[in-house]
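SEQUENCE-TO-STRUCTURE ENTRY
===========================
What this section holds: a protein sequence and its matching fold, both as plain text.
Question of interest: how does this chain fold, as expressed in backbone structure tokens?
***
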Amino acid sequence: MQNLAPRINKTHTAIGPRPQHSVARAIAGSMLLSATLIVAATAEEYPNRPVRFVVAFAPGGITDIIARLVGERLSERLGQTIVIDNKGGAAGALGAKLVSTSEPDGYTFLVTTTAIAVNAAASPISIDPRTQLVPVAMAASSPTIIAARTPATSKSLPEFVRNLKQDVLTYASSGAGTVEHLTAAYLLKGISGIAATHVPYRSGAEAINAVIGNHVNLSSTPVGSAISVVQNHQLQILGVASHKRVAMLPDVPTFGESGLADMDSASWVAIFGPPRLPSAVTERINAGVNDAMRRPEVRERLLKIGFDLRGSSQQEFSAQIQAEVIKWTRILNETGITLN
């Protein structure tokens, strides 16, 4: 994924118009009591100073790219600067912790991925997005696929396993405990007669290169990580983890169609706020994100990197987060995978 955007070295980036109020006023406002901040946030003048997007991963990655796409359009709508603040580390846990303890004043939001739901399912000490954050808006998602090196005569994952004619299969992902690792482990567990060994790599690009280089049999990855090599005919997708076929892969069967678990697994990017965030602020940011994602230039950019918009109301997104944590808890239990 490193070739999708120029490398960004700064962890703080301001997007949008310059603040119209003085620095002194901004500093004074940040020192107000929590109750006063909440009242101010819900007043008609919100926002009256820059809004901070804490991106839970490093600059230059997909989460950062989408945060900046959304931030630029949201800045136009709000009339305030969106400051991108990259706080990568611990699979997104550092950024989540920071926002979970922030003032609920409408000026600090978290931009993170499916990892937050997996982390909550795996450990009781992880930040739980259902109770320790407020789900605000879903931005975009990229479904999980499993792919083999081309040329592959198999057209589905079960057929590939049958044709492999060996007892042990190896599959790569971008790391232990990732959505892609758990998805592949869950699906392969449903195919009898094969022992599957996971080979973790440091990134999705490395996991893809491993299967192209014939070091492993399969790679489990988001479409966004694989789209360019699929288009170059270096990978063949054997299935997509979605309840229905995806628009960008109309000829690729879902795993349910192939006789495996009918599951929906995706790497999504979404926005959360701190606990007790006023509903007026939540709804305003939700509407702004949905508007940003509907822009033709944003949708076109997302499709090029294998993502599609996943806009929804705040209530729908909140219900989805509830379901996500439950789903990954079940998958962890059924696969027996434990995460440190």
